[in-house]
Design brief:
With 228 residues, this protein is of the alpha/beta class. It is 30% helix and 18% strand. Strands 3-2-4-1-5-6-7 form a seven-stranded parallel sheet, sandwiched between helices.
Length: 228
């Protein structure tokens, strides 16, 4: 079984990239399943079903999506094995830019788009900096100069990653991405494996439902700003 974790900021084009990569992988006879992690709602299951892609959706609700992801990914891998897939692709939202769903021993992909701004690569945490592959989307609606500057910023943030440009509408670049996906390492289980970076901390009174403002209501892992 191969596992590919695909993460990236909202609306960066993750689902479009996966759909195009799936088309390329499907022609090779590889069985691929997809599991989508999101927070409150998603329409992506319909998109996968239209393409006859076996898919599951998990909604984190009030929990941190990253914590929800890591608590469920082993079960998703077992589902993929029972379904006799060759590859499982997980898609997670990366809502806070501090998300870190990548796992040691599994292929890690970050999707980021040219429209997010040239300083965005420096703002995105381990889901970009520790990815094996960084896929840049929406290159068709910016200038060549903007594409080059953005790719340079991505390279600064992740010097060792493979950088690809994929058009989520036409599919240009998806074949090359599919070849890299196809080379993902094999694994049988995630039990005992490690994340590439720790999850965002989330143990304060607000995590437990507190809504009132003020020091008296703040307990647990609380961080204060240093103001002049």
């Amino acid at each position: 079984m191969q596992l590919v974790t695909v993460a990236g900021p909202p609306s960066s084009g993750k689902t479009s990239v996966i759909l195009k990569v799936f088309e390329a992988l499907h022609h090779t006879g590889i069985g691929v399943g997809v599991v989508k992690f999101d927070s409150l709602s998603t329409k992506d299951l319909e998109l996968y079903q239209k393409k006859s892609i076996p898919a599951q959706v998990g909604l984190a609700g009030n929990l941190c999506p990253d914590h929800f992801f890591i608590s469920n990914i082993q079960d998703c891998l077992e589902w993929a094995k029972r379904s006799h897939f060759n590859m499982l692709i997980s898609e997670s939202a990366g809502l806070c830019n501090r998300c870190s769903p990548h796992i040691k021993g599994a292929l890690a992909v970050c999707v980021i788009d040219n429209l997010s701004g040239i300083y965005t690569p420096q703002k995105v945490g381990p889901m970009l900096k520790l990815a094996d592959i960084v896929i840049i989307t929406k290159g068709d609606i910016v200038s060549q100069a903007e594409r080059e500057v953005f790719a340079f910023r991505v390279r600064q943030a992740n010097p060792g990653g493979n950088i690809l440009h994929v058009n989520g509408i036409t599919g240009q670049g998806a074949l090359e991405a599919s070849r890299l996906f196809h080379a993902a390492p094999q694994l049988n289980s995630l039990i005992g494996r490690q994340l590439r970076f720790s999850m965002p901390a989330a143990t304060c009174s607000y995590c437990l439902g507190q809504t009132r403002i003020g020091d008296d209501f703040q307990m647990g892992n609380v961080k204060k700003m240093e103001l002049n």
